[in-house]
Amino acid sequence: MSQSKLKQVFSYQSWVHAVSGSAGSVIAMSAFYPLDTVRSRLQLEEPDRRKALSTWRILMHLIEEEGFATLYRGLVPVLQSLCISNFVYFYTFHSVKALRAASVAGGPGAGQSALGDLLLGSLAGVVNVLTTTPFWVVNTRLKMKGLDQQHRLLGGGSSSSSSVRNGGHSSNSIGSNTIKYDGLLDGLQYIARTEGVRGLWAGAVPSLLLVINPAIQFMVYEALKRKLTEGRPSSSSPSAITFFSIGAIAKMIATVLTYPLQLVQTKLRHGNADKSLNLPADIDTVQLLLIILKRQGVAGLYRGLEAKLLQTVLTAALMFMAYEKIARFVTSLLISPKSVKGLN
Fold this sequence. Notes:
Blueprint: H1 3-9, H2 12-44, H3 55-66, H4 75-102, H5 114-143, H6 145-153, H7 156-159, E1 165-166, E2 169-170, H8 184-195, H9 197-200, H10 204-209, H11 212-229, H12 240-270, H13 285-301, H14 305-334
Antiparallel strand pairs: 1-2
Helix pairs in contact: 2-4, 2-14, 4-5, 5-8, 5-11, 11-12, 12-13, 12-14
């Protein structure tokens, strides 16, 4: 790789995007984390447990049954993982984007297209999945400690006879045993020791398929952003509410198109707490999709979509708004004014 291309990969611009994306995601997730807790419960609990309840009512039920703290269970490791994950994703996306722009005549904005952004987003997603999946496996299980407690109280913890395999590796009925760790590093060590290295990448296959989710999100976001900033001077920036709105639109489209895979990803990571499915060992992504479709219908594939949309759209919208503002602020501190245009 030539020295000029290395400069594009290890540039201040890529670093600014990565730091801003990480900071924006942490701010957004902190604000809307209880909604993510609801989404996880709806995806993993038995379908009849909270049937026909609104997101607000589920929040109230969780507080009544397990206490207010359960809404924020696992927040710290989630924020740690999210920070790492978004740093990797934003850095990869904008580094490869800069490399592509450097190889095309006409300046930084030349050669940009929706299809190009989709491909770049997919590549960044693959890198992200391969490097950060273990963190999300631990997070999913930490977040569901309250569900494990409910199973024991209801007698489900001792009656489960099926040993579900997580991502092709035995999880020893995770949904019915006490999780023996409280933090991210402890969880990584425990899973590696008890389930092997493969256990850390449980759900990696649907995660790789799901790289299309942030890829679609970034494709729509970048296309709308280009349209809105077209003809504007580099010193002029759309308002915060504009970034919030286009971030929300982009995430809504991506979530609706890929939600069934997100549902399967969550179940495989956790080891399937939904005992109504009675899954066989070594189940794969396609088999799980077909089983849910057969036993619960199309509605089963979209269980928890309302909570997911509410959480993910608001989180993504706030994240993009914070990201754009932080990026512009950090840029003004670290990069000369002539380089600001390269961030758009």
